[in-house]
Design brief:
The chain folds into 4 domains: 4-56, Phosphorylase Kinase, domain 1; 66-139 and 337-497, Rossmann fold (3-Layer(aba) Sandwich), CATH 3.40.50.740; 141-332, Dimethylsulfoxide Reductase, domain 2, CATH 3.40.228; 582-699, Barwin-like endoglucanases (Beta Barrel), CATH 2.40.40.20. The model has no long low-confidence stretch (mean pLDDT 97). The chain is built from 25 helices and 28 strands. The strands form 7 sheets. It has a 7-stranded mixed beta sheet, with helices on both faces. A 6-stranded mixed barrel has the order 23-27-24-26-25-28. Helices cover 32% and strands 17% of the residues. The termini are far apart. By secondary structure, the protein is an alpha/beta fold. The chain binds iron/sulfur cluster. Residues 10, 12-13, 15-17, 40, 44-45, 47-48, 180-182 line the site of iron/sulfur cluster. Belongs to the prokaryotic molybdopterin-containing oxidoreductase family. NasA/NapA/NarB subfamily.
C-alpha cells in the first residue's frame, strides 16, 4: 500500500491550523503544515508539529467499552451492545424516578460540530433536559455574552487576515506567543515588514508576548475595566473618539460617556498599578491607529466580572470607530479547536442552535419544530460548575462526560472530585485511560481521536474546516457521534437515523437558513473541494465572509452597536489579606495542552517545562525565605498545592502563577492548580474566576 495524504485541522487551539497528515504503508502517521491553508500557510507550532506522536502512540488508549455493575466492582470489558443497553437502562430509570433534570451531559470544545449538534439535539430535544454544558464554559462564555451585548449576536467581526492590515494591537489577558503561536507568528511577521506597527500588552505577567511589546502595562489583576475606562476617558478628552461612527452606528453612548468621564485617571493608574505615562502612551497609540485590533483570551474571560471586562474592552473599539473596516475590531481568541462550532450549534446550557436563546419561548418552539418534538423544556440548564454542584447536592444523579477531564480543569477540583464520587452513574467517553476522570466511570466508552473520524470545526475567526478521516481508530473505539447515535437508538428516539456524518451536517446547515450565520449553501463537497469558509456563506458560489459589519448594520434590532455600561468596575473576588496575601492566576504553558492527556505523552514537549512550578516575584520570594527550586506550599481556602518555586521578575509583586495542566501525579493531587481556585463565577456568563484566587505561599518544610 502506498502512503496516503489526509487534509485536516490541528486538534489543539482555536487558531485552527491546516495540517497534511501522511499515513505510510505501516500505518505510521506523520504531519506537516498545509502550505495552502489560509490560517497557517504551512506553519505549525510545537504542539501541532508533534501531533503525529499522539496519533501513533495508542498505548494509553481506551480500546473497548468497560463497565461495572456496582461501585465496588472494577471495570470489566463488555461489548458495545451491552454497554449501550446499560446506558439506556440507567438513564431511563433515573429520569423516570427523578425527572429529566436529574441527568446531565458535560461535553467539550474539542468535539466536532456534528457531535456537538447531536449531543444537544439528544439532550435538549429528546431527554427533555437542558443540562448540557461544555468545558468552553470555562474559557470563553464571557466573550459570547460580550459580543451579544455589543453586536446583538455572538459574532466575531474580523478575521486573521485583518492582522496584516492593522497597525495597532492591544493584546490583553492573552499570551498568544505561547497559547496561539501561529497567530502570534503572523503578527510578528507583519511587524517585521511594517515598522509602523505597534503592540500594547496588558498583563500582570511579562509573558513572551509582553516581552516583545512596544508597551507593556503590567496591570494588577482584576482591575481591567477601570483601566479601559481610564483609556476611554483620555481618548475622549484628546478627541480621538470617532463621533461620526458613534452618532450613526451606536446607541447608549451618553450613559457610557457619563460613567467614563466620572473616572479619575490618577486613581485608576494607582489602583491598576500602571504609571500615568503608560496610560498616556497607550491612548496616543490607540488614538492615532488606522487599524486598531484588540486580542484577548482567558485573562479577561475567566473572571468574576468577565462579561464586564469584555464589554468595557469592546467599547474601546466602538469609541474609536474601529469595527467593520480593514485591520480593525475586537477579536476574542478561542482556546479550543471547536469552541466556536459549539457556540454555533447551541452547545451551552443557555443556548440553542443557530445563536438562539433557550430563555426565549419562540426560539425554543422554532428549534422544537425543526427537530420534530413537541417542546423544549423551559427550565434553565445547569452550567459546568452548577452540574457538579448538583451532583454534590444529589439533585443530579447521572452525568455523561465527553472528551474532557473536569477533575483537572474545573475550579475547586477536590470538591468536583468529591461530587463526581457521589454520582449514581457516571459515563466517561474519552480516548485515554490517563484522563483522571476515567477513574470514576461506571461506564467507560472508547472514543475515536484526531484523524480517526470525519466532521467539521470552526476556528476563532468563524472559519469552518472539514476534517477528513485518515486512519481507523484502535480497538473498538467509535467516533463520538456514533456513540451518541447508538445511545439514541437504544432510547428508541426517532430523528437519529442518519446514514452518515454528512447528513447530520446537512441538517444543521439547513437550520441556519436565513439567519445571520447562514451556511445553508455549504456542504461537505464544497469544504472538501474549495477549502475553508467563514460564515455566513450566502449562496452556492459565495466565498464566505472574512469581515462582518462592513455595512455598519449590526445584529441588534436597531442595527446599531451597543455601548454597554459595565455593572462592576473592579473584581468582586475579594482583596489580598493577612491570611491570603497573594493573588493566584493560573494558565497555560507553551508546549502543553489542557490536562496533558495528549501532549503529556510526547517526550519532546515535556522538555520545555517538565514539572509543575509556581512563578513568584523575587521580592515576594525573599520576604518568604524562598529560594529558586524550593518546594513551596500554596494554600487557599479550598485546598493545597505543593510545587517547586520559579523565582522570576516577569511576574508582578503580590501575584503568583501556576500552570493549569497537571493533575494527579504519583497518586497525589498536590500539583493540581485547581485544588486552590475559587468557585466564584461571573453572574451572567457563569464562567469561573480562574485568574483571581487569594492564596498564601510558604516554603515547604518536611515534617
Ligand atoms: Fe495547532 Fe494552535 Fe499550534 Fe496551530 S497554533 S499548530 S492550531 S496548537
Amino acid at each position: 500500500m502506498q502512503s496516503t495524504e489526509t487534509k485536516t485541522t490541528c486538534s489543539y487551539c482555536g487558531v485552527g491550523c491546516g495540517i497534511i497528515a501522511t499515513t505510510d504503508a505501516k500505518n505510521y502517521v506523520s504531519v506537516r503544515g498545509d502550505e495552502n491553508h489560509p490560517v497557517n500557510k504551512g506553519m505549525l507550532c510545537s504542539k501541532g508539529m508533534n501531533l503525529h506522536y499522539v496519533a501513533n502512540d495508542t498505548s494509553d488508549r481506551i480500546l473497548y467499552p468497560e463497565m461495572r455493575w456496582s461501585k465496588s466492582q472494577p471495570l470489566q470489558l463488555v461489548d458495545w451492545d451491552t454497554a449501550m443497553d446499560r446506558a439506556a437502562a440507567v438513564f431511563s430509570s433515573i429520569i423516570k424516578k427523578y425527572g429529566p433534570d436529574s441527568v446531565g451531559f458535560y461535553v467539550s470544545g474539542q468535539c466536532l460540530t456534528e457531535e456537538y449538534y447531536i449531543a444537544n439535539k439528544l439532550v435538549k430535544g429528546f431527554l427533555k433536559t437542558n443540562n448540557i454544558d461544555t468545558n468552553s464554559r470555562l474559557c470563553m462564555s464571557s466573550a459570547v455574552v460580550g459580543y451579544k451585548k455589543a453586536f446583538g449576536e455572538d459574532a466575531v467581526p474580523i478575521s486573521y487576515d485583518d492582522i496584516e492590515l492593522a497597525d495597532t494591537f492591544l493584546i490583553t489577558g492573552a499570551n498568544p506567543a505561547w497559547c496561539h503561536p501561529i497567530l502570534f507568528r503572523r503578527l510578528e511577521n507583519h511587524r517585521e515588514k511594517n515598522k509602523k506597527v505597534k503592540v500594547i500588552v496588558i498583563d500582570p505577567r511579562k509573558t513572551d508576548t509582553a516581552a516583545t511589546a512596544d508597551l507593556h502595562l503590567q496591570i494588577t489583576p482584576g482591575t481591567d475595566v477601570l483601566l479601559y475606562h481610564a483609556l476611554a476617558k483620555r481618548i475622549i478628552e484628546k478627541g480621538y473618539n470617532d463621533s461620526h461612527f458613534i452618532k450613526n452606528h451606536t446607541q447608549n453612548y451618553e450613559a457610557y460617556k457619563a460613567i467614563i468621564m466620572a473616572t479619575s485617571i490618577e486613581n485608576a493608574a494607582k489602583i491598576c498599578g500602571i504609571p500615568m505615562i503608560q496610560i498616556e502612551q497607550a491612548v496616543d497609540l490607540i488614538g492615532k491607529a488606522e487599524g486598531f485590533m484588540t486580542l484577548w483570551a482567558m485573562g479577561l474571560n475567566q473572571s468574576a466580572i468577565g462579561v464586564d471586562k469584555n464589554t468595557a474592552l469592546i467599547n474601546l473599539s466602538l469609541l474609536t470607530g474601529h469595527v467593520g473596516k480593514p485591520g480593525s475590531g475586537p477579536f476574542s481568541l478561542t482556546g479550543q479547536p471547536n469552541a466556536m462550532g459549539g457556540r454555533e450549534v447551541g452547545g451551552m446550557a443557555n443556548l440553542l442552535a443557530v445563536h438562539k436563546d433557550l430563555a426565549n419561548p419562540e426560539h425554543r418552539q422554532e428549534v422544537a419544530d425543526f427537530w420534530g418534538v413537541d417542546s423544549i423544556s423551559p427550565n434553565p440548564g445547569l452550567t459546568a460548575t452548577e452540574m457538579f454542584e448538583a451532583l454534590d447536592s444529589g439533585k443530579m444523579k447521572a452525568i455523561w462526560i465527553i472528551c474532557t477531564n473536569p477533575l483537572v480543569s474545573l475550579p475547586n477540583a477536590r470538591k468536583a472530585e468529591a461530587a463526581l464520587a457521589k454520582a449514581k452513574f457516571v459515563v466517561v467517553q474519552d480516548i485515554s485511560h490517563k484522563a483522571e476522570t476515567t477513574k470514576y466511570a461506571d461506564l467507560l466508552l472508547p472514543a475515536a481521536g484526531w484523524l480517526e473520524k470525519e466532521g467539521t470545526m470552526t476556528n476563532s475567526e468563524r472559519r469552518i474546516s472539514y476534517l477528513a478521516k485518515g486512519i481507523n481508530p484502535p480497538g473498538e473505539a467509535l467516533a463520538d457521534v456514533d456513540i451518541l447515535l447508538r445511545f439514541a437508538k437504544k432510547m428508541k428516539f426517532s430523528g437519529f437515523d442518519y446514514n452518515s456524518t454528512e447528513e447530520i451536517y446537512k441538517e444543521f446547515c439547513h437550520m441556519t437558513r436565513d439567519t445571520n450565520m447562514d451556511i445553508s449553501f455549504l456542504n461537505y463537497d464544497r469544504l472538501k473541494n474549495e477549502g475553508t469558509f467563514q460564515w455566513p456563506v450566502s449562496d452556492y458560489r459565495h466565498p464566505g465572509t472574512p469581515r462582518l459589519f462592513e455595512d455598519k448594520k449590526f445584529f441588534t434590532p436597531s442595527q446599531k452597536a451597543n455601548f454597554t455600561v459595565p455593572a462592576a468596575i473592579e473584581n468582586t473576588s475579594g482583596q489580598p489579606n493577612d491570611e491570603f496575601p497573594f493573588i493566584l492566576t493560573t494558565g497555560r504553558i507553551r508546549d502543553q495542552w489542557h490536562t496533558m492527556t495528549k501532549t503529556g505523552k510526547v517526550s519532546r514537549l515535556m522538555t520545555h517545562k517538565p514539572t509543575p512550578f509556581l512563578e513568584i516575584n523575587p521580592i515576594d520570594a525573599y520576604k518568604k525565605g524562598i529560594k529558586e527550586g524550593d518546594l513551596v506550599e500554596i494554600a487557599s481556602k479550598n485546598g493545597l498545592v505543593r510545587v517547586k518555586a520559579n523565582i522570576t521578575t516577569t511576574i508582578k509583586e503580590g501575584v503568583v502563577f501556576l500552570p493549569m495542566h497537571w493533575g494527579r501525579q504519583l497518586n497525589t493531587d498536590l500539583s493540581r492548580a485547581n485544588n486552590l481556585t475559587n468557585t466564584i463565577v461571573d453572574p451572567v456568563s457563569k464562567e469561573p474566576d480562574f485568574k483571581f484566587t487569594l492564596v498564601a505561599v510558604t516554603k515547604y518544610v518536611k515534617p
